From TrEMBL:
It comes from Coccomyxa viridis. PANTHER family: ALPHA/BETA-HYDROLASES SUPERFAMILY PROTEIN, GPI INOSITOL-DEACYLASE. It is found in: Endoplasmic reticulum membrane. Its EC number is 3.1.-.-. Involved in inositol deacylation of GPI-anchored proteins which plays important roles in the quality control and ER-associated degradation of GPI-anchored proteins. The lineage of its organism: Eukaryota, Viridiplantae, Chlorophyta, core chlorophytes, Trebouxiophyceae. Residues 126-168 form the GPI inositol-deacylase PGAP1-like alpha/beta domain. Keywords: Endoplasmic reticulum, Hydrolase, Membrane, Protein transport, Transport. This is GPI inositol-deacylase. One of its GO terms (biological process) is protein transport.
Length: 308
């Protein structure tokens, strides 16, 4: 097969591109065309997106497109909303009722979908992989790395993920029925030293105590949720996950003002982590320091040509 190559600046990333035929050799799905096809060399960083509880893959379509426009290969775990009903399998275990449930095998269905997405990313590029996990996908990603390994994965970035189990001394109910407690005990902080961790939290609303004169009704309702997660209703959070629970020890911690938890029910008046103006506030942590310091100039999250 005859191939020619050249260095070009394409889709926000400067790299080596290869012209070749036929199209079926392309990393993209086969399509009809005439002449030679432009195919990116397999050295691109990949981002594997992990949906949060109750979300499906389509909820992250805009995020994926935004990341692809910045020169990243994006793969999203194929999760549908009905898939989350599979967690009900834990009801059959005694540990569920005693609050000592372990993640596996209850969440194996999710971990297998993550592994399929990571495998597809490895096949698409020889470059490093960033796991980008939203909400419950954050602590599920920690279980994944423990059970499936970190091959080619060098970054873990979580968005609004409730990483910390409720404080044991407050005798609060672990809403995951013990799974998050198990994760906290067995995969603490930046457990995998070969992986760079970054946790992103949002300050959308400060909670308030249900019984008290201070705070609006929405703040009191949000405070109830915060209290169940971290034990304190009077903290800032993204409306679902309180800031104290969203960060991991040893991770780079980013807290963003005015950011809501979910892509659902948002809009311009309630931007979430994946909104266009918000992505650029955390995009740099998708890359490792070497990429930012030596290979690329980065300004407001946009990739430009490498330094000469």
């Amino acid at each position: 097969m005859n191939r020619t190559s050249s260095s070009q600046y394409q889709n926000g990333v400067y790299g080596r591109w290869i012209y070749r035929r036929p199209c079926r050799d392309s990393l993209r799905p086969p399509r009809k065309c005439r002449g030679l096809c432009l195919v990116e060399a397999k050295a691109q960083r990949a981002v594997v997106v992990l949906p949060g509880l109750g979300n499906n893959s389509q909820d992250y379509k805009a995020v994926g497109e935004a990341l692809e426009s910045r020169g990243l290969h994006v793969q999203c775990a194929a999760v549908s909303r009905p898939d989350w009903l599979r967690n009900a399998a834990g009801l059959r275990q005694v540990e569920y009722w005693t609050g000592k449930l372990q993640p596996r095998p209850t969440v194996d269905w999710y971990l297998n979908k993550v592994d399929a997405a990571v495998t597809a990313a490895r096949q698409a590029t020889d470059g490093p992989i960033t796991i980008l996990a939203h909400s419950a996908g954050g602590w599920l990603s920690r279980v994944y790395l423990l059970g499936f390994g970190t091959e080619q994965i060098d970054r873990l970035v979580t968005l609004g993920s409730p990483h910390q189990a409720p404080p044991k001394d407050l005798k609060l109910v672990d809403q995951t029925r013990g799974i998050l407690t198990w994760v906290t005990d067995n995969v603490p902080g930046n457990f995998h030293q070969e992986v760079g961790y970054a946790t992103v939290a949002g300050k959308w609303m400060k909670g308030a105590r249900l019984r008290g004169s201070g705070g609006s009704l929405p703040q009191k309702l949000v405070g109830l949720g915060y209290q169940q997660v971290c034990g304190n209703p009077e903290v800032w959070g993204d409306g679902i996950t309180p800031v104290p629970a969203a960060h991991l020890e040893g991770a780079e911690q980013i807290t963003l003002d005015g950011v809501y938890h979910s892509p659902l029910g948002g809009g311009t008046s309630r931007p979430w982590y994946g909104s266009p103006d918000i992505i650029d506030q955390w995009l740099r942590v998708v890359y490792d320091g070497k990429e930012l310091d030596t290979d690329f100039q980065v300004e407001v999250g946009d990739m430009v040509a490498p330094q000469q």
